[in-house]
Specification:
heterodimer; A: alpha+beta; 8 strands; 19% strand; globular; B: alpha+beta
């Protein structure tokens, strides 16, 4: 697991939904632009985006989920859902503000959020998207989220907030150029990752704290992609 | 007239025991077996038959026909050796084919009868396997060091080597080794099963588990409370009432955020149906509808653990299998 962790830690320029708070990330500091130049590079073919969003979860979940796609004015509902899950393809502006990939249009993070996560975490994500499209800088976005949570205008994750990221199609960071590993994520209030011993050898989970949005995310690699094919090295890295 | 009141067919149960069922069906099978004594008996029968068949080896031709079979067929070896040399090889070949065919038929008949009887048991012709608590000695480990080692085997060494270790003694769990990282490892016994589980008093059950600090504070107290009540001679009804009261009075804690545990030991024995099961992590939450997590749906890697289902503890427990045992060896695919 240490090898996997080193690989991930070294390569996760993209911290999609992980809330990486690593000082290492911050030390990279940015050569990235401070605002979005245009929404165009981030837009996808609508059907392809729906399919990618759904690939985040097993068909038994995503086929009944509401699907959001990114439009010129923010995320919009492409397919109404029946099971309270919401699937979407995340973009780069969920990264830490100093991440060089903060505006990288190649980044796509398919994710299916549970109902508690939809009621809480998704609101933060949609707010970030709104600010990004409105031309706010990475610093302004982060400050607004921190302030919104402090004022109670934005929620921290509800108990039971979790998500599936089991798509083969994702592009989570520029280093691994792909989807990393299929995994399930749990959002909990601020818990010290050290209390989960996630950095230990052979420990089958990772944990990261997002100090801006004030939660800790625990991600557990699982053995199969959403299409049922095995992720051979899901537990061997 | 017989009606099948089980959600899994016998063939599926066999496939489950062979590790050949898809995750969703395996989960359904496990959840059902946890509460179905007939199915546990059937699973044990299947395992027994499987072991017999695995142990049954066809001897090499050079070894000749076993004397028991010759005797059973009324043939004496000396008669065969007296036969004409020219027909000897053909006779022996034909005879062996018949003998082996007959022997195979006998084995198949025996297996069939066993399965038929097991099937009858499964459909309501059998009572619970472990109806009552047996002598406490049977739940205790005769070797304290072995229990410490088993407890530690629940998690990777990076965690368990610095964890606090509890072992079960005559008066309950006691600290065997003080910890340094906030984790607590312990070998649970059968009474942490659901109260309506047929395994509730199974003295063979050993569930090695390492609780993280949040679970050590909020879930471990339930294990200790149940154990203390069992050793004090409480009935199930008394235990249930006491646990309910404990939660009502806030004497027992709700699951803390982030409460989870490791169950990655290959040394465990979780019940007669699943043996040591597969390595997995468990996450504890206040009562949560499993559908809100997509648990137990086809191809979902998340399953609902029946441990607290319909029980007095207001807790929902989700399970995620992982790919390796705590010793780093690969686990069977589920």
């Amino acid at each position: 697991m240490r090898n996997r962790r080193l690989l991930v830690f070294a390569s996760l320029t993209f911290a999609w939904m992980f809330g990486l708070s690593s000082e290492r990330m911050q030390a990279q500091d940015n050569a990235a632009p401070s605002t979005m130049a245009s929404i165009d590079p981030y837009l996808m073919d609508r059907d392809a985006e729906i399919a990618m969003a759904r690939s985040a979860g097993p068909n038994s979940i995503s086929s009944g989920a509401k699907v959001l796609v990114l439009g010129r004015h923010g995320y919009e509902t492409a397919v109404e859902g029946k099971n309270d899950f919401v699937c979407l393809v995340g973009r780069s502006w969920d990264l830490q503000k100093n991440n060089p990939a903060f505006w990288d249009p190649k980044i796509h993070g398919p994710i299916c959020l549970s109902a508690p996560a939809v009621r809480s975490y998704l609101k933060v994500w949609l707010k970030k998207t709104e600010l990004a499209i409105a031309g706010r800088s990475n610093t302004q976005i982060e400050d607004a989220i921190r302030e919104g949570i402090a004022k109670g205008e934005l929620p921290t994750p509800e108990p039971g907030s979790m998500a599936y990221m089991m798509s083969k199609q994702g592009y989570l960071n520029a280093s691994i150029k792909g989807p990393w590993l299929p995994h399930v994520m749990f959002y909990v209030p601020e818990v010290d990752p050290k209390a989960l011993q996630s950095e230990g050898d052979d420990v089958p989970l990772d944990a990261h704290e997002d100090k801006v949005a004030r939660f800790t995310v625990i991600d557990v690699p699982v053995s199969k992609w959403s299409d049922g094919t095995p992720a051979e090295d899901a537990h061997s890295h | 007239m017989s009606t099948n009141r089980h959600p899994i067919e016998q063939e599926e149960l066999m496939a489950y025991l062979d590790g050949e069922l898809p995750m969703d069906q395996a989960t359904e099978a496990l959840a059902h077996m946890e509460l179905c004594p007939e199915c546990q008996i059937l699973a044990a029968e299947f395992r027994g038959v499987s072991q017999v068949l695995m142990a049954w080896e066809v001897e090499s031709e050079e070894g000749g026909i076993p004397s028991e079979i010759n005797a059973a067929l009324g043939e004496r070896p000396e008669k065969r050796t007296a036969a004409k040399v020219s027909s000897l090889r053909l006779d022996r070949l034909i005879t062996r084919r018949w003998v082996w065919t007959g022997a195979l038929a006998v084995v198949c008949l025996a297996v069939g009868l066993k399965l038929m009887l097991a099937s009858r048991n499964r459909n309501g012709h059998h009572s619970a396997v472990y109806p009552n608590m047996v002598a406490i000695e049977q739940y205790l480990s005769p070797d304290r060091n072995a229990e410490i080692a088993m407890a530690r085997s629940a998690a990777p060494e990076a965690i368990s080597s610095e964890a606090k270790i509890l072992v079960l003694g005559w008066r309950g769990y006691e600290t065997a080794i003080e910890g340094q990282n906030g984790f607590v490892c312990v070998v649970e016994r059968s009474w942490t099963s659901p109260f309506n589980s047929a395994q509730f008093w199974n003295p063979k059950v050993r569930g090695p588990v390492c609780f993280n600090p949040a679970a050590a504070r909020s879930i471990l107290p339930l294990t200790i409370k149940r154990t203390d009540m069992v050793l004090a001679g409480f009935s199930k009804a008394q235990m249930i009432a006491s646990i309910k009261s404990g939660f009502d009075n806030k004497e027992l804690p709700a699951p803390e955020p982030g409460a989870m545990c490791y169950m990655m030991s290959r040394a465990g024995y979780l019940n007669d149906a699943v043996g040591h099961f597969v390595p997995h992590l468990m996450f504890y939450f206040p009562p949560t509808d499993k559908s809100s997590w997509g648990a137990d749906l086809p191809d979902s890697p998340v399953t609902l653990n029946p441990q607290f289902r319909d029980g007095p503890e207001p807790i929902t427990e989700f399970v995620i299998p992982v790919g390796k045992w705590s010793d780093g060896t690969a686990a069977p695919d589920m």
